[in-house]
Structure formats: structure tokens, C-alpha cells
């Protein structure tokens, strides 16, 4: 079980907090337990939206596998941000020094900067305060026009809803893209990409739809893409005809079920080849009888 600690600053934006919290609590429902804790420098924390929150004052004992998230807060400029005491900044810094991951949403990057965690690292924040963040923390490399950045266990996101993207990224890194896609589907949100990196998996690229039947079939393919998956069996599993399944799947993803499975096989094979596997070994590992089909798919993708 991993611990996720949210450090709350007065004026915190509810969605900056609730979005990532929902991602991790949903992941827990799907069998990946997380304990969520909320800490602050005072028990009652006012929010930007007027709903007061209650938080603890004591930080739990954290391990390297645990995560600390600093949601953003309401401020016209970062210079107007609330004061953050030395003990809290030290807690952020110490957790990272011990091998833990620290993340921020929106203006929360300012807290990481004050803790010294942006020095020499790439980061981002809300577009309204990106230039100010760069001025206030000249040792940081502020990346514009991305949803989030990840640099040496310091994860920063652009603001508001992008905190969901950040949290989905962390779930994917820990449990695989299929789990993150399942969480995104349950939350009825798009599984979006960083904004400048290539999308990491077809499991994300082709999940930005709301067709439950197609998602169910994708779940089946994701879990067994290296096995034969006849169209009649997939159609039977979701209670539709083969023709209906092909029509629904193509409309939702732009691919047929077979082409989707081949895409997953190709991505996995490319990963194996990049890590030293031969073409033949990679082909067999992902379910091809030999390397001929893999060669064709690679040539088509080139």
C-alpha cells in the first residue's frame, strides 16, 4: 500500500486537489491500494471556492514509494502566494532526498521551488504564471505548453484539470497504462498525453471515447494481446454481433479490433527490440509465429 499525502495551502483550488485524489482513490477501488492523507499548517484550510477543508497537522512517516502532492492555490501572482513554513518545506525536501516522489499542480510548483526542488530540473505550471516561476527560480527550466513534466521524481503540472493527467501518468508508471486507462474510463475523462512527448501507448491513444462496449473489448485485448483473439469470441464476450462490434470499435478508435491488437503487439515488440531482443524473439514474445508479420507492421509504421 502506498501513501499519498496532499499538502494544503490556504486558498487551495478544489479541483487541483480533488482531481488527483479521485484518480488515486479510484485506483484503490481497482485493487491498487492507496492511503490518502491531507496535511496543512493549520487545521482548517480555506479554499478558493469557499468550502473550508479540515486537515491534519502531523506528517505521516513516509517511505520512498510514497507520494507527496502540493495542489495549487488562488493567487494573482506567485509573489502573492501564502507563506509556507520552514518545517513544511523541509518535509517536502526530505521526502525527495529519501527517494520519494514530490508532485505539484498549478501554483503548487512555487512550493517546490521554495523547497529547492526545482533547481536544475524541468518543470511547468499554469500558463499565467510560467514566466514568473522562471524569474523566481532561475535555476529551473520552465517548460511551456505542456500538461506536465517529470524530472528526477519531481512532477509538475500546468494547472487545474491537468492534475488529473499528472495523477494518471503516475498510476500508469506504477501499474501500467491499462490500469490508468481503466481509471480514466471510470472517471469519464480523457487519458491525455504530456503535450510534447509522444504518446506512450495505444492503450491511451485509443481510449478517448465513451463507448462502454468498446472499452470492454479493449480491456480484453489489452490483457491478452499476445494471444489469438478471434473476432467471434470478442463479439460473444460483449453480447453483440461481429459486424456490430467491428462498426462500434472502428467508430470509437479508428481501428478494427485486429488492427488495435496488432498495434499493441508492435509497440511491445519495438520496446523489446530496443532493449536488445532479436526481431525473431520479439515477434514470438508478442504472439507472432515468426518475424514476417512483425517486419510488415514495422515497415508500415515507418
Task: Describe the 3D structure.
- This protein has 302 residues and is an alpha/beta fold.
- It has two domains: 181 residues, Rossmann fold (3-Layer(aba) Sandwich), CATH 3.40.50.880; 93 residues, Orthogonal Bundle (Arc Repressor Mutant, subunit A).
- Helices cover 46% and strands 13% of the residues.
- A hairpin with a 7-residue loop joins strand 3 and strand 4.
- Helix 1 runs parallel beside helix 5, helix 8 packs across helix 9 and helix 8 runs parallel beside helix 11.
- The longest helix is centred in the C-terminal third of the chain and has 18 residues.
- The radius of gyration is 22 Å and the shape is elongated.
- About 2% of the residues have low confidence.
Main sheet, how many strands, which sense, barrel? Answer: 6 strands, mixed
Number of separate strands:
10
CATH topology of the largest domain: Rossmann fold
Helix content: 40-55%
- Share of residues in strands: 5-15%
The SSE string, one letter per element, is EHEEEEHEHEHEEEHHHHHHHHH
**Mean pLDDT across every amino acid position:** 92
Give the termini separation: 42 Å
Structural class by SSE content? alpha/beta
Strand order of the largest sheet: 2-1-5-6-10-9
Quickly count the domains: 2
As residue ranges, the low-confidence spans are: 195-199
Give the full name of the CATH homologous superfamily of the largest domain: Class I glutamine amidotransferase (GATase) domain
Shape: elongated
CATH architecture verdict of the largest domain: 3-Layer(aba) Sandwich
The total of helices stands at 13
Using the CA coordinates, give the radius of gyration. Answer: 22 Å
For the record, what CATH class of the largest domain applies? Alpha Beta
